[in-house]
Amino acid sequence: MTSGSMRWTSGWMAIALLVAVALPVAAGRGAGWRDRAWPEHVRRVDAALADARAVDASRLAYAADFAVARALLERADAPQRLGDVVGTWQVRSIQVNAHGTFAYPWFRASIRRTADELWFEKTTGSQRRSGVLLPHGDGRSLAFLGGATVNDEPQAAYSRGRAAGPAPSDSAGRLYRIGARELLLVLDAEGGRYELYHLRR
Question: What residues contact residue 120 under an 8 Å CB cut-off, 6+ apart?
Answer without folding.
Answer: 109, 110, 111, 129, 130, 131, 132, 133, 144, 146, 175, 185
